[in-house]
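User: What would this chain look like folded?
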Amino acid sequence: MRKALNDNPIVQVGVLGVLALVVGFFLITQMGKHSSSSSTTSSPTSSTAPSAADAATAPTDATATPATASDPTAAPSASVPSAVPDAPASSAAAPAAAAGRFVAGPGLPRPVVQAYNADKVVVLLVVRRGGIDDDAVKASVERMSGLPDTAVFMTNAGHVSRYSRIASGVNLDRVPALIVLRPQKLTHGTPTATVSYGFRGPQSVAQAIADAVYKGPTDVPYYPK
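Assistant: Here's the prediction, encoded as structure tokens.
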């Protein structure tokens, strides 16, 4: 075979022709593959993605609404109340003015006010239910309920809030407590009261009432001149 290739020019030309065809076919095949891959990789560049300018001018997506409008599980947003007009100053000051006067209302029953306005001695006894001293003082005060120009009121410590304005006026801090208000005519309309604690017999209660209506001098010495 080698001798034929060396000695026969026709065989040499045929072999060269076959080699040329093989090389040409190989080159054409490789070029076709390269062209196909180039077109495949360059195709995404022709996509229709919006440019930055288009994105800036594009309308807002309708789904971009607040979470509370579309998601039922989202926490509701706090609502800001509208402004409320200021209340008149007189409405806020009215309760304080009423509390400063001796008028019926919370902490001051109407019968107490009526007795005070009638120039009576108001006796208020505050006791603890079941207390030994409390029961004894209660019995002594009950004897005074029939005295003229005297109004007697009794309450348990648990209900002292009904008379809170009187209790706070004398700084009530324990029971049994005997509170005595002087008649209105002797105090020129300014309620004045005294408070005493512990056991008090009938004579001691009567003396407290007598002191409430006393109109003499208050600087009398306790020893004789």
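The domain at 104-212 is CATH 3.40.30.10 (Glutaredoxin). If you want, I can go into more detail on any region.
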